[in-house]
Amino acid sequence: MLDVSELDTFYGKAQVLHGMSFAVGQGEVVALLGRNGAGKTTTLKSIMQLVPPRGGRVTFGGRDITGWPPHRVAQAGLGYVPEERRIFTQLSVVENLEVGRQPPRDGAVAWTEGSLFELFPNLAERRRNAGKALSGGEQQMLTIARTLMGNPALVLLDEPSEGIAPVIVEQMAHAILRLKAEGLTVLLSEQNLHFARAVADRAVIVEHGEVKFDGTLADLEAHPEIRDAYLSV
Ligand code: ATP
């Protein structure tokens, strides 16, 4: 469904991705793992064309989206949830969701406020509250929920478990498993191996902007030396 092929991405003269290649199949949950600064965020931004790669190709649903403006990439069905929470602090939870509303894709069931409140019950309780009144974890949930209102076919989640309370991390994992059950495809970046184990089918380990491992979580368990070499555990 998503094919990332030989991406070279730079910030100015500094090359951060070096021939980054991997694929995500329809309905899969894939975790991009790696230490701080390994290039996970840059990979997600390169896929969205927010930081356009200088070499390589991104294909999504059979279409080459390399070089497209990011809003067209989003219209093509890619939803991006950045690490920093992006909500309107003065607007209520319901109003924030309305801002994200886009028509459903062909044949797909559209997300509604009702179905999103089932996915994130905390947000239902806070529906009339202003964004700024929410906890960090609730803001993270609202950012994801607002992206889902755009009815993407694939969601890119940048460190969904980062900086939130353990009980919320558990709810987040549960929500991602629900998304998978609904048929959504998910690519998430993570430093938390425990979280990746709970939600992902496959792990892609990144170091210095290159893929060092691509396999199932079970394969990774079978090779603790890979985990020790590339992940902080
Ligand atoms: P983190 O968990 O810290 O987000 P990451 O694996 O997502 O780590 P990236 O954010 O992709 O890593 O960063 C990869 C490299 O690119 C790092 O060396 C970082 O310092 C550098 N970098 C990131 N953003 C920029 C930028 N806007 N300008 C210059 N260099 C950047």
UniProtKB/TrEMBL annotation:
SUPFAM superfamilies in alphabetical order: P-loop containing nucleoside triphosphate hydrolases (SSF52540)
GO MF annotation: an example: branched-chain amino acid transmembrane transporter activity
SMART domains, sorted: AAA
Keywords on record: Amino-acid transport, ATP-binding, Nucleotide-binding, Transport
InterPro entries in the cross-refs: AAA+_ATPase, ABC_transporter-like_ATP-bd, ABC_transporter-like_CS, BCAA_Transport_ATP-bd_LivF, P-loop_NTPase
BP GO annotations: L-amino acid transport
CDD domains linked to this entry: ABC_TM1139_LivF_branched
Ranges for domain ABC transporter: 2-233
Protein family: Belongs to the ABC transporter superfamily.
Protein name: Amino acid/amide ABC transporter ATP-binding protein 2, HAAT family
Species assigned in the record: Roseivivax sediminis
